[in-house]
TrEMBL record, chain A:
The chain crosses the membrane at residues 101-123, 132-155, 175-195, 233-259, 279-302. Residues 95-298 form the ABC transmembrane type-1 domain. Part of the ABC transporter complex GsiABCD involved in glutathione import. Probably responsible for the translocation of the substrate across the membrane. It comes from Pseudoduganella chitinolytica. Gene3D superfamilies: MetI-like. SUPFAM superfamilies: MetI-like. PANTHER family: DIPEPTIDE TRANSPORT SYSTEM PERMEASE PROTEIN DPPB-RELATED, GLUTATHIONE TRANSPORT SYSTEM PERMEASE PROTEIN GSIC. It is found in: Cell membrane. It is a multi-pass membrane protein. Keywords: Cell membrane, Membrane, Transmembrane, Transmembrane helix, Transport. Belongs to the binding-protein-dependent transport system permease family. It comes from the Bacteria. This is Glutathione transport system permease protein GsiC.
From TrEMBL, chain B:
It is found in: Cell membrane. This is ABC transporter permease. Its main location: membrane. It comes from Pseudoduganella chitinolytica. The chain crosses the membrane at residues 25-50, 136-163, 170-190, 196-215, 246-265, 271-290, 302-323. It is a multi-pass membrane protein. Residues 132-323 form the ABC transmembrane type-1 domain. Keywords: Cell membrane, Membrane, Transmembrane, Transmembrane helix, Transport.
């Protein structure tokens, strides 16, 4: 077990190095000279030379790469070009609002998705099953933009059920007042693909021998589905949830932008608009790291759910 | 490689087509996708909607089935005569200009259009067709780039194996550890030029990982097959074995990936254009239409939003259903 974790952590190193290299090449070679972006339109040669010296971009590439590697290793990504705030501080302060929306969203999505998937798989092949699947396909085809625009206009602006946008200081106010509508929209968008996927996971299990055995020994159908099938379908479901967590963090960027939620996603869009490279670099590296860690956690969870899985 | 199939020499594609033809949903979806593609060709060649920027209606002209609204009445009554300033040296010119403008407005602009008009009086139907042209071209070309790259990498990686495979796998791990939307935004931040080519590049360069994984697995399976060994024996080069011999046998995977990615990229283009990282000002796409429609909705002008949203939803639904049916029809494991 410990050997497994250590080896997986060791294997992360080359991938992490690759991410650092990729980000470095993207921003330093493809991205052009940051001094020109920073100096803006009214730039004199002296001003640009000055900025170049401050940023350290007049150093040779290997030296710059080494600086970046050191930044990643110490989690000190320097300062935002736009506001001068330390990047680490920006990310830390934006994490809370993002999680306030995303944690309830993920929990609800998983619970509703699993319950519906089991119900639909139970009546597989029936008219209900097919109708739900068609509805899912249509629901997935409507752009998230349309959901946001229509829900925000209809439920918040016209009917006044929710605030149109905004964000408070206390967790309670945010959770009860500002987060519900973004969460509702997030659910409307994500439940269809989730349901389709989980249904296929459940259907993979329904035809297994152990299900026939469970039925044969006279277990009620409800128990077969909820205990036996669910326990086995849990592995791909866990993988899916864990693998999606880091992507979710910025995946909700449209929600955060529309509802004025000061989270990571909105910060990334702002940074892209302002060419604020330190912030984008830092978020990219952090999210990549989070992805790897969550993948490892998913593997560890496997064993907890299914004793047959051996982590070698 | 093998004997002639039992049913009179029908190959994989023929069998797949037969299976597809029996699927009524798939045929309807195929018809809808084909209709959109015909529209795309007509629009690109200028036969349809070339004059979408003409101001044919009054501002926000409502759809015909709604009837002319109060806003329209106000717009038509706007031609209030302005008294001339006797000391104005340009009075003569101004009068002429005003007369010209007045006649043009009353002569050309209609109070309502079949599906309404936008802020400038552009016909929504033509605008939706033109916007669809941009969105679909971006989606299809970007999907072609992504599947092309994925196929090339997957072929080389799977065929050669060893160190080459390790290198590509490392590259794959690096790319997939960054969520695609963040990857897209990162590349958008780096490529400062906005334009249709840029957005195709962004989506194409970040979307190769899915096809790569599947194509690589297929090449691993196929490279030790007898027909490849036979090609080797008659002295075929590696490139020939990879692309003339193996590729036709795995091309169905590429085709299915192409249709799946095209759907994803059409949706992604809309979001990128909406955020202002996509098509430049002056080019209309479904994303830029939704962007305009967001403010119009507050004025109660819902038709542009509806037109763009419905057109896109219909195409994407049909495309997804077709992709599902294609996957089923082309899966060699499913026997007819």
């Amino acid at each position: 077990m410990l050997a497994f974790v250590l080896r997986r952590l060791w294997q992360m190193l080359p991938t992490m190095l690759g991410v650092v290299l990729l980000v470095f090449v993207l921003f330093n070679w493809v991205g052009g000279d940051p001094a020109y972006i920073l100096a803006g339109k009214m730039s004199s040669p002296e001003a640009i030379a000055n900025i170049r010296r401050q940023l350290g971009v007049d150093e040779p590439y290997p030296v710059q790469l080494w600086i970046f590697v050191k930044q990643v290793a110490t989690f000190d990504f320097g300062q935002s070009w736009a506001t001068g705030e330390p990047v680490g501080q920006i990310i830390a302060s934006r994490l809370g609002p993002s999680l306030t929306v995303l944690v309830p969203l993920t929990v609800l999505e998983t619970l509703i998705g699993v319950a519906l998937a089991l119900a639909v798989a139970f009546v597989r092949g029936s008219l209900t099953d097919r109708a739900v699947m068609v509805a899912c396909t249509v629901g997935m085809s409507v752009s998230i933009l349309v959901y946001i625009i229509v829900f925000q206009y209809g439920l918040a602006y016209q009917m006044g059920l929710f605030p149109v946008q905004g964000w408070g200081d206390s967790l309670g106010v945010n959770l009860l007042r500002y987060a519900p509508l973004p969460i509702l929209i997030g659910l409307a968008v994500s439940i269809a693909p989730t349901l389709r996927l989980y249904r296929s996971f459940v259907l993979d299990e329904v035809h297994q021998d152990y299900v026939r055995t469970a039925r044969a020994k006279g277990l009620p159908e409800r128990r077969v589905m909820w205990v036996h099938v669910l326990r086995n379908a849990a592995i791909p479901i866990i993988t899916h949830v864990m693998a999606n967590l880091p992507a979710l963090l910025i995946g909700a960027f449209l929600l955060e932008r529309f509802f004025g939620i000061p989270g990571i996603g909105r910060e990334v869009i702002l940074a892209v608009e302002r060419s604020d490279f330190p912030v984008i670099k830092a978020v990219t590296v952090c999210v990549a790291l989070a992805t790897m860690v969550f993948n490892l956690l998913a593997d560890l969870l496997y064993q907890a759910v299914d004793p047959r899985v051996r982590l070698a | 490689m093998s004997a002639v199939p039992a049913d009179g020499g029908a190959g994989l594609w023929m069998l797949a087509w037969r299976r597809l033809r029996d699927d009524r949903v798939a045929m309807v979806a195929l018809g809808i996708v084909a209709a959109f593609l015909v529209m795309l060709v007509l629009s690109a060649t200028g036969l349809v909607a070339a004059d979408w920027e003409e101001e044919v209606g009054v501002n926000y002209a409502p759809p015909t089935f709604v009837g002319a609204g109060p806003a329209t009445a106000a717009a038509t009554a706007a031609a209030v005569p302005v008294p001339d300033n006797p000391f104005d040296p340009l009075a003569q010119d101004l009068r002429a200009l005003r007369a010209q403008l007045g006649t043009e407005q009353t002569a050309a602009r209609r109070a309502s259009l079949p599906f309404g008009a936008d802020k400038w009086g552009h016909d929504i139907v033509k605008k939706t067709i033109k916007g669809g042209q941009t969105s679909i071209v971006v989606g299809l070309v970007a999907a072609l780039v992504a599947v092309g790259l994925g196929t090339l990498f997957g072929a080389v990686s799977g065929f050669y194996g060893g160190l080459v495979d390790d290198l590509f796998n490392w590259f794959y791990n690096v790319f997939t550890s960054i969520p695609s939307i963040l990857m897209i935004l990162t590349v958008a931040a780096v490529l400062q030029h906005k334009g249709v080519t840029t957005i195709v590049l962004i989506l194409g360069l970040t979307g190769w990982t899915g096809p790569y994984r599947l194509i690589r697995a297929e090449y691993l399976r196929h490279k030790a097959r007898e027909y490849v060994l036979a090609a080797d024996a008659i002295g075929a080069s590696a490139a020939r074995k990879m692309f003339a011999h193996i590729f036709p046998n795995v091309s169905h995977v590429a085709l299915v990936q192409l249709s799946i990615l095209a759907v994803g990229f059409i949706k992604a283009e809309v979001i990128l254009s909406f955020l202002g990282f996509g098509v430049p000002v002056g080019v209309v796409s479904w994303g830029s239409m939704l962007n305009e429609a967001q403010n119009e909705l507050l004025l109660g002008k819902w038709w542009q939003l509806t037109a763009a949203a419905v057109a896109m939803a219909v195409l994407v639904t049909a495309f997804s259903l077709l992709a599902d049916a294609l996957r089923d029809a082309l899966d060699p494991k499913v026997k007819p």
